[in-house]
Amino acid sequence: MLRTYLPSVVAHTTDAGCEVVVADNGSTDESLEVLHKEFPTVRTIVLDKNYGFAEGYNRAIDATRSEYVVLLNSDVETPEGWLTPLLDYLDAHPEVAAVQPKIRSWKDKRFFEHAGAAGGYLNPLGYPYCRGRRFGRVEEDHGQYDSVAEVEWTSGACMCVRTRVYKESGGLDASFFAHMEEIDLCWRMRNKGWKLACVPASTVYHLGGGSLSYGNPRKTYLNFRNNLLMIYKNSRWRWWVLSVRFFLDYAAATMFLLTGKTEAAKAVCQARRDYRKMR
Length: 279
Hints:
Elements: H1 2-12, E1 21-25, H2 31-38, E2 43-47, H3 52-62, E3 68-72, E4 76-77, H4 84-92, E5 96-105, E6 120-122, E7 128-130, E8 133-134, E9 137-138, E10 149-151, E11 158-162, H5 163-168, H6 181-191, E12 195-206, H7 217-234, H8 238-258, H9 262-278
Parallel strand pairs: 1-2, 5-12
Antiparallel strand pairs: 3-11, 4-12, 5-11, 6-7, 8-9, 10-12
Helix pairs in contact: 6-7, 7-8, 7-9, 8-9
């Protein structure tokens, strides 16, 4: 990941006052050695263990001093000029807390990528979707989403956020560990009156599924559990939504069973149990 994607980030993050920082989240391979030898200009923050996506970012951001910070996954390629439109938009719109670029697939750059596409939204039952992506289906980018749009969440694959607002809103929820933590954060920021936007003048390319593949039962577990926690924490209609979701989640588990995906069905049931403990 470092050798494939970090060179583009280093080469194309040239705006004045910006630096590239890699947070090593308790790696057990040769990542730190690679960083030291092959990317000597990149500042490294070394964490003592794997704190997960959420708390890893919180600790890394606590160790930085900047007006804005970009949360950027390790499997994202950034082309020339990717950062300037994001910074310019935040400078010009003080009511906006965070922005994202268009996120297209690194595997096939004609298409949007699942995790963020052209800006995220939530349906009334708390299911996230995007401009350019509904459930598992992504669209080819024909410029249909080339207008700036106010959104309900910005993708953690590439989110440029005001550092002060990030911290005042509590940062990413460490109990989530990974998945939907950025949607939860965005919901909290919106509840405080901040706006969010997708700025399509910027585009990045995301591999996706670099940590957990899309069919991995662990990913299914985290997505179901964290989605319920997020609704419980933030929705003004939470009891109505959660009552409906009780039936829909077990319907999903049944569908997994009927299609032979036993581990996914178990993951949904475990997510429901752990949500009840954690809430």
